[in-house]
Amino acid sequence: MLFQEALAANCYQRSRDYHVASGNAYPRTAIKPSTLFNGKYSTVKPITAAVLVRNLSTADGDKTSLLNTIPEPPAIPQGGPEIADIVAGAEPAFATLGLGGWTPVGIVQNCMEFLHIGLDLPWWGCIAIGTVVVRTLLFPLVIASQRNAAKMNNHMPQLQVLQMKMTEARQAGNAIDSARYGQEMVLFMKEKKLNPLKNMLVPLAQAPIFISFFMGLREMANTPVESMRDGGLFWFTDLTICDQFYALPVITSLTLFLTIELGTDSARMSAANMQTAKYILRALPLFIFPFTINFPGAILCYWACSNFFSLIQVGFLRIPKVRDFFKIDRIVTHRPETLPIKKKGFTEGIKESWTNMKISKELEERARIDEIRFQKAGKGPLVKTYKYDPTAPRTAGTPNAVNAKKR
């Protein structure tokens, strides 16, 4: 208790003089607190007193008027450099350009931005790496599709026999035999672990990815992303415009044609029942060429990279040791004369498909008419199909009775 009282007395008796510093380090003038707000410092506000004491010199005269005059803020310099000019290589974020997001298209754009900004890659490199990564992730589906396609090809003779019998029964209007052969085909495919839908795994998986890349790169080129104007390679340096030399559209069409001829990612289209589809796909590169000449270079760069990857993948999976490693059956080559369904040309195949379609439509129409007649017969009155009513009572003198006795 005595210690606290002594400490309080010392605090109250301590000198509270303020030292006003001059321009030199020494000497310093002491000012009493009682005279701080009197005389020439009377106009000083208490809040700014400490500022005055620490910054005004006693040897420079009265400077209290400086406290009453607030200088104007400095003018903002006009024509100053932009932030993008100050920071070398700075680019606006995709979010400020209305790109990106959490949609499939936005995710593709975000990945492209990460590869370009994070890894400092040119745009053509970003597109190529993105294509390779996505196609590599789909490789397990390609393996599953190749296994199923090899089994379908090796069991093609048995499948064609059942298919031919089912078609003949359908054309003859025998729905029972057609259903029976169809059931036999289903059981055979189940026994051999065959599934035609597995051949569509790769196209069904690639379709949404291709559409997302297509729309995402098109938006980036149309915005445009300024760095894509010189983000190309060789002759297509500007990825926001179409190729003026038409080289990229030609390369895209040729690589697509080679992919179809050598074999698609899902299966080789050499079987007799797939010739029609192969003919249609052969015409696809010619059909899309007039449209691709107007596509931006970014889209064609992605498409060409995807086609080149498909060619490398098809060639890789045709190596026997690779097929054995992934447990893909060796493809058995069937001679056309040994197959139940003979190989037909393009015109004959189209005619046969059209005939089968017409027959199927006629059979469906007959079945529909028979069902309508059956319903009407069950709901309406009996239809008279005889000249005389055999259930009506007859007398012995009727002509019919006499004729019956004579016979």
Automatic annotation (TrEMBL):
It is found in: Membrane; Mitochondrion inner membrane. Residues 385-407 are annotated as: Disordered. It comes from the Eukaryota. This is Membrane insertase YidC/Oxa/ALB C-terminal domain-containing protein. GO terms for biological process: protein insertion into mitochondrial inner membrane from matrix. InterPro entries: YidC/ALB3/OXA1/COX18, YidC/Oxa/ALB_C. Keywords: Membrane, Mitochondrion, Mitochondrion inner membrane, Transit peptide, Transmembrane, Transmembrane helix. Pfam families: 60KD_IMP (PF02096).
